[in-house]
Amino acid sequence: MCEEILSVKDLKTYFNSRTSTFLGKSPSIRAVDGINLSINAGESFGLVGESGCGKSTTGRSILRLIQPTSGSINFAGRDVMTADKKSLRTLRREMQMIFQDPYSSLNPRMRVLDIVAEPLIVHRLAKPSEAATKAKKVLDHCGIPDGSVQRFPREFSGGQRQRIVIARALVTRPRFIVADEPVSALDVSIQAQILNLLQDLRDEYSLTYLFISHDLAIVRTVTNRIAVMYLGKIVEQADTSVFFSGPLHPYSRALLSSVPRETPDEDKKRIILTGNIPSAANPPKGCNFHTRCPLFTEKCKKIAPELIPVSKGHSVACHLALKSSK
């Protein structure tokens, strides 16, 4: 039986809106609205959905880079939500993040060697002289040769900068990494290199990934399980192979239909969603997706469906999918 390394229960992250209503009250933006996740050690767990659905906020909330509004986060038996400043610093040795934009996440005034060595010094894992040596080894492992480590981030290509970001995340020897769209800003040929690197590093360092992406084709190749988010909520969760063989939620089916066909002759009907995309500051009553769902009923307008298991390892939040599975 696999060991659970991360447990997230009823996580909510709300932001105050800058806009005001007629009465002067500012509605809260429900970026993450009560999600539950469980990730096993050594697993690569995919979190997918449209831009703006709350994926990145979920990853940052789990690491408490953004302070969640409520809920519980348990990492390796430790409570992340109630951790004080000292305990949180200790936790962050083991919980790291690969950011979406490698250029903006690197200090342009620091040389690459100093960027990667800095976490070792901050966490007191090595003296400055030792930190430089260890940083060089990790950079070399990630494809940045010794002769380049004294350069600044601007002197590297996008793919090389992403390798530097990965090296910085790895240097403290973490157990868990949130990879937030790690290849979305890269060319397709470079994407393959970075994905292969992440796969190799997972096996070598015994890493656990939360892999955030909007690209289902990529998620299919690098994850064991997958969760689909829509407007701050998880609407479907399943083993990756099970999900791609037959998604149950109408939103999941629409996402999957948008993936480019492997062969031109493949018979595949594209599902085009209509209707307005709701605001996270004013989500619709009932099911969040019913304003765009081609199959909605009156029940969908009134009652929000819960994420309920329909088979082993497969859960869905949809009244129609639950009814058809019985």
Describe the structure.
This protein starts with a strand and ends with a helix. Helix 4 (128-141) packs across helix 5 and helix 5 packs parallel to helix 6 (188-205). With 326 residues, it is α/β, with parallel strands linked by helices. It has a domain at 246-326. Strand 9 (225-230) and strand 10 (233-239) form a beta hairpin. It is 33% helix and 23% strand. The relative contact order is 0.13. The protein has an eight-stranded mixed sheet with strand order 6-7-8-3-9-10-12-11, sandwiched between helices. The chain has a four-stranded antiparallel sheet with strand order 2-1-4-5.
As residue ranges, the low-confidence spans are: none
Helical coverage, percent range: 25-40%
Helix/strand order: EEEHEEHEHHHEHEHEEHHHEEH
User: How is the biggest beta sheet arranged?
Assistant: 8 strands, mixed
Q: Assess the beta-strand content as a share of residues.
A: 15-25%
Count of helical segments?
11
Count the beta strands.
12
> What is the topology, as strand order, of the major beta sheet?
6-7-8-3-9-10-12-11
How far from one another are the termini? 28 Å
Task: List key phrases describing it.
single chain, 326 residues, alpha/beta, 8-stranded mixed sheet, 4-stranded antiparallel sheet, 12 strands, 33% helix, globular
